[in-house]
Structures are given as structure tokens and as C-alpha cells.
Design a protein that fits this description.
Layout lengths: L2 H24 L2 H22 L3 H30 L12
Length: 95
């Protein structure tokens, strides 16, 4: 294992810790997952810097694509929750 691979593993673990802290601090899964995925992208780029190969490039690109897809989906879901009107308990839904 190269020094950059070790550093990438440390960055990935730091990302897990940072995501947990972001979830505790903000109570926002979107913020926590975005933080985690950003650290995973950083770790993948570090690994790519050490091992410049097509499989390494493909892995880094797939992590970045997944980050964008997951982030967009969570952002859309969060918007949907914000747009839903809150009804007080005991009020019927209009038919």
C-alpha cells in the first residue's frame, strides 16, 4: 500500500466522522451525505494521484457521478418536504 493509499483511507475515515458530526449538528441527512461523498471524492482523487490507471480513473469518475445523482435526489426530496404544508393535528385532509 502506497502512502497516498494510506492517506486516502484516512481521508475516507475522516469523511465518515465528519458526516456523523454534520448529521448530529444539522439534523440534515442531505448535509451529512453531501459531506461524506465530498470526502469520498477527495479520497478517490488521492488514490488516482498515486495509481494512474484506467480502472482507477473509472472508479473516481463513478464516485463523482454517484455523488451528483445522490445529491440531486436528496435535494429534490428535501424540497418536496419543505413544499408540503404542515397541518395541525385533528384537521382532515381536503377531499
Amino acid at each position: 500500500m502506497s502512502p497516498l493509499d494510506s492517506l486516502a483511507a484516512v481521508v475516507a475515515l475522516a469523511g465518515m466522522l465528519a458526516a456523523g458530526l454534520a448529521l448530529i449538528a444539522t439534523h440534515s441527512p442531505l448535509q451529512a451525505i453531501t459531506t461524506l461523498l465530498d470526502f469520498f471524492v477527495a479520497a478517490a482523487l488521492l488514490r488516482l494521484a498515486g495509481e494512474q490507471s484506467w480502472p482507477g480513473l473509472g472508479q473516481t469518475a463513478s464516485i463523482m457521478v454517484l455523488r451528483h445523482i445522490i445529491h440531486a435526489g436528496l435535494r429534490q426530496a428535501e424540497r418536496g418536504r419543505q413544499d408540503t404544508p404542515k397541518r395541525p393535528p385533528g384537521h382532515a385532509t381536503p377531499a
